[in-house]
Amino acid sequence: MVPIIKTREPRKADVRHLREPPMRILVTGASGSGTTTLGQALANELGVAFFDVDDYYWLPTKPPFQEKRDRVLRMTLLLEDLNKVEFAVLSGSVVNWGGAIEDSFSLIIFLTLPTPIRIARLRNREIEQHGSVDPNFLAWAAQYDEGGLAVRSLVLHERWLAERLCQVVRLDGDLSVEERVAHSIAAAPTIQSTGA
Protein backbone atom coordinates (compact mmCIF):
# COMPACT_ATOMS: atom_id res chain seq x y z
CA MET A 1 0.00 0.00 0.00
CA VAL A 2 1.41 3.38 -0.99
CA PRO A 3 0.97 5.97 1.79
CA ILE A 4 -1.10 9.02 1.04
CA ILE A 5 0.63 12.30 1.69
CA LYS A 6 -1.42 15.47 1.39
CA THR A 7 -0.47 19.04 1.99
CA ARG A 8 -2.84 21.95 2.48
CA GLU A 9 -1.37 25.38 2.03
CA PRO A 10 -1.88 27.88 4.84
CA ARG A 11 -5.08 29.90 4.94
CA LYS A 12 -4.56 33.59 4.28
CA ALA A 13 -4.88 36.02 7.16
CA ASP A 14 -3.95 39.63 7.79
CA VAL A 15 -0.88 39.23 9.97
CA ARG A 16 0.93 42.46 9.12
CA HIS A 17 0.60 43.64 12.72
CA LEU A 18 2.25 40.50 14.14
CA ARG A 19 5.94 39.93 14.70
CA GLU A 20 7.55 36.79 13.27
CA PRO A 21 6.39 33.96 15.55
CA PRO A 22 8.71 31.31 16.90
CA MET A 23 8.92 28.10 14.84
CA ARG A 24 6.55 25.52 16.29
CA ILE A 25 5.57 22.24 14.72
CA LEU A 26 2.64 20.18 15.99
CA VAL A 27 2.40 16.45 15.30
CA THR A 28 -1.17 15.33 15.94
CA GLY A 29 -3.52 12.44 15.23
CA ALA A 30 -5.30 9.57 16.91
CA SER A 31 -3.91 7.87 19.98
CA GLY A 32 -1.51 5.17 18.77
CA SER A 33 -0.85 6.82 15.40
CA GLY A 34 2.75 7.64 16.32
CA THR A 35 2.54 11.33 17.21
CA THR A 36 4.92 11.15 20.17
CA THR A 37 7.39 8.93 18.33
CA LEU A 38 7.47 11.21 15.29
CA GLY A 39 7.53 14.34 17.44
CA GLN A 40 10.59 13.14 19.35
CA ALA A 41 12.35 11.96 16.19
CA LEU A 42 11.63 15.21 14.33
CA ALA A 43 12.81 17.32 17.27
CA ASN A 44 16.00 15.26 17.45
CA GLU A 45 16.60 15.60 13.70
CA LEU A 46 16.05 19.36 13.83
CA GLY A 47 17.95 19.81 17.09
CA VAL A 48 15.04 21.60 18.80
CA ALA A 49 13.00 21.24 22.00
CA PHE A 50 10.26 18.61 22.26
CA PHE A 51 7.05 18.82 24.29
CA ASP A 52 4.37 16.14 24.67
CA VAL A 53 1.08 17.92 25.42
CA ASP A 54 -0.08 14.94 27.50
CA ASP A 55 2.49 16.07 30.09
CA TYR A 56 0.48 19.28 30.45
CA TYR A 57 -3.04 17.88 29.96
CA TRP A 58 -2.80 15.23 32.67
CA LEU A 59 -1.80 15.55 36.31
CA PRO A 60 0.94 13.13 37.36
CA THR A 61 -0.87 10.12 38.89
CA LYS A 62 -0.27 6.41 39.39
CA PRO A 63 -1.59 4.90 37.25
CA PRO A 64 -1.13 7.76 34.76
CA PHE A 65 -3.79 9.59 32.76
CA GLN A 66 -6.44 9.57 35.48
CA GLU A 67 -6.88 13.26 36.37
CA LYS A 68 -7.04 16.17 33.94
CA ARG A 69 -5.21 19.37 34.75
CA ASP A 70 -7.26 22.61 34.85
CA ARG A 71 -7.60 24.02 31.31
CA VAL A 72 -6.18 27.45 32.12
CA LEU A 73 -3.30 26.01 34.14
CA ARG A 74 -2.26 23.53 31.44
CA MET A 75 -2.24 26.28 28.80
CA THR A 76 -0.27 28.58 31.10
CA LEU A 77 2.32 25.90 31.88
CA LEU A 78 2.77 24.96 28.22
CA LEU A 79 3.07 28.60 27.10
CA GLU A 80 5.66 29.26 29.82
CA ASP A 81 7.78 26.39 28.55
CA LEU A 82 7.30 27.27 24.88
CA ASN A 83 8.29 30.88 25.51
CA LYS A 84 11.67 29.69 26.79
CA VAL A 85 12.64 28.32 23.35
CA GLU A 86 12.67 29.70 19.83
CA PHE A 87 12.00 26.39 18.07
CA ALA A 88 9.89 23.46 19.28
CA VAL A 89 8.09 20.32 18.18
CA LEU A 90 4.95 19.33 20.08
CA SER A 91 3.00 16.09 19.94
CA GLY A 92 -0.61 15.39 20.86
CA SER A 93 -3.97 17.05 20.50
CA VAL A 94 -4.43 20.73 21.40
CA VAL A 95 -8.03 21.05 20.21
CA ASN A 96 -9.89 23.57 22.44
CA TRP A 97 -6.74 24.66 24.27
CA GLY A 98 -7.21 28.27 23.20
CA GLY A 99 -5.91 30.43 20.38
CA ALA A 100 -2.60 31.23 22.09
CA ILE A 101 -1.65 27.57 21.59
CA GLU A 102 -3.85 26.45 18.69
CA ASP A 103 -2.80 29.27 16.36
CA SER A 104 0.89 29.34 17.28
CA PHE A 105 2.16 26.71 14.83
CA SER A 106 4.26 27.15 11.71
CA LEU A 107 3.41 23.62 10.55
CA ILE A 108 1.00 20.88 11.61
CA ILE A 109 1.64 17.25 10.72
CA PHE A 110 -1.49 15.10 10.93
CA LEU A 111 -0.99 11.34 11.17
CA THR A 112 -3.60 8.74 10.30
CA LEU A 113 -3.31 5.00 10.70
CA PRO A 114 -5.85 2.17 10.40
CA THR A 115 -7.61 1.41 13.69
CA PRO A 116 -6.41 -2.24 14.02
CA ILE A 117 -2.77 -1.13 13.78
CA ARG A 118 -3.29 1.69 16.29
CA ILE A 119 -5.06 -0.55 18.80
CA ALA A 120 -2.38 -3.25 18.53
CA ARG A 121 0.30 -0.62 19.16
CA LEU A 122 -1.60 0.76 22.14
CA ARG A 123 -2.16 -2.71 23.60
CA ASN A 124 1.56 -3.49 23.32
CA ARG A 125 2.54 -0.12 24.78
CA GLU A 126 0.15 -0.49 27.73
CA ILE A 127 1.53 -3.92 28.57
CA GLU A 128 5.14 -2.74 28.20
CA GLN A 129 4.70 0.43 30.26
CA HIS A 130 2.04 -0.56 32.80
CA GLY A 131 1.95 -4.36 32.83
CA SER A 132 -1.71 -4.51 31.83
CA VAL A 133 -4.24 -3.07 29.42
CA ASP A 134 -7.07 -0.74 30.38
CA PRO A 135 -10.02 -1.94 28.28
CA ASN A 136 -11.79 1.43 28.68
CA PHE A 137 -8.79 3.21 27.20
CA LEU A 138 -8.67 0.85 24.21
CA ALA A 139 -12.42 1.27 23.64
CA TRP A 140 -11.99 5.06 23.74
CA ALA A 141 -9.08 4.91 21.27
CA ALA A 142 -10.97 2.54 18.95
CA GLN A 143 -13.88 4.97 18.48
CA TYR A 144 -11.66 7.68 16.93
CA ASP A 145 -12.62 7.05 13.27
CA GLU A 146 -16.38 6.96 13.95
CA GLY A 147 -16.63 9.33 16.94
CA GLY A 148 -18.43 12.66 16.77
CA LEU A 149 -17.44 16.21 17.61
CA ALA A 150 -17.87 15.71 21.36
CA VAL A 151 -14.86 13.36 21.63
CA ARG A 152 -11.32 13.19 20.27
CA SER A 153 -12.15 11.92 16.81
CA LEU A 154 -11.25 12.10 13.15
CA VAL A 155 -14.17 14.43 12.39
CA LEU A 156 -13.14 16.75 15.25
CA HIS A 157 -9.52 16.81 14.08
CA GLU A 158 -10.52 17.39 10.45
CA ARG A 159 -12.72 20.34 11.44
CA TRP A 160 -10.00 21.79 13.69
CA LEU A 161 -7.33 21.40 11.00
CA ALA A 162 -9.50 23.22 8.44
CA GLU A 163 -9.55 26.25 10.74
CA ARG A 164 -5.77 26.52 11.16
CA LEU A 165 -3.82 29.28 9.43
CA CYS A 166 -0.56 27.37 8.98
CA GLN A 167 0.39 24.65 6.51
CA VAL A 168 -1.03 21.21 7.32
CA VAL A 169 0.68 18.03 6.12
CA ARG A 170 -1.28 14.80 6.30
CA LEU A 171 0.62 11.52 6.41
CA ASP A 172 -1.66 8.50 5.96
CA GLY A 173 -0.52 4.93 6.46
CA ASP A 174 2.02 2.86 8.31
CA LEU A 175 5.21 4.66 7.33
CA SER A 176 8.48 4.16 9.17
CA VAL A 177 9.62 6.89 11.55
CA GLU A 178 12.43 7.75 9.15
CA GLU A 179 9.98 8.13 6.25
CA ARG A 180 7.70 10.33 8.34
CA VAL A 181 10.61 12.55 9.38
CA ALA A 182 11.76 12.88 5.76
CA HIS A 183 8.24 13.73 4.51
CA SER A 184 7.77 16.25 7.33
CA ILE A 185 10.99 18.07 6.54
CA ALA A 186 10.41 17.92 2.77
CA ALA A 187 6.91 19.38 3.16
CA ALA A 188 8.28 22.49 4.81
CA PRO A 189 11.29 23.67 2.81
CA THR A 190 12.10 26.45 5.27
CA ILE A 191 12.81 23.85 7.94
CA GLN A 192 16.42 22.75 7.91
CA SER A 193 17.93 20.01 10.00
CA THR A 194 20.69 21.14 12.36
CA GLY A 195 22.09 17.64 12.33
CA ALA A 196 22.04 17.59 16.13
Description:
- The structure is a single chain.
- By secondary structure, the protein is α/β, with parallel strands linked by helices.
- It is 39% helix and 17% strand.
- It contains eight helices and six strands.
- It has a six-stranded mixed sheet, with helices on both faces.
- Helix 1 (35-46) packs across helix 8.
Write a short abstract of this structure.
The protein is an alpha/beta fold and 196 residues long. It is 39% helix and 17% strand. Strands 1-6-5-2-4-3 form a six-stranded mixed beta sheet, with helices on both faces.
What structural keywords apply?
196 residues; alpha/beta; Rossmann fold; six-stranded mixed β-sheet; 8 helices; 17% strand
Outline the fold blueprint.
Elements: E1 4-8, E2 23-29, H1 35-46, E3 49-52, H2 54-57, H3 71-82, E4 87-91, H4 99-102, E5 107-112, H5 115-130, H6 135-142, H7 154-162, E6 167-172, H8 177-187
Parallel strand pairs: 2-4, 2-5, 3-4, 5-6
Antiparallel strand pairs: 1-6
Q: Which oligomeric form is depicted?
A: single chain
- Classify the fold: give the CATH topology: Rossmann fold
Beginning-to-end CA distance, first to last residue: 32 Å
Q: Helical segment tally?
A: 8
Low-confidence stretches: 11-19, 192-196
Task: Report mean pLDDT, rounded to a whole number.
Answer: 86
Q: What is the global morphology?
A: globular
Q: Give the CATH H-level superfamily.
A: P-loop containing nucleotide triphosphate hydrolases
Helix content: 25-40%
Query: Would you state the CATH class?
Result: Alpha Beta
**Biggest sheet, strands in spatial order?**
1-6-5-2-4-3
Domain unit count: 1
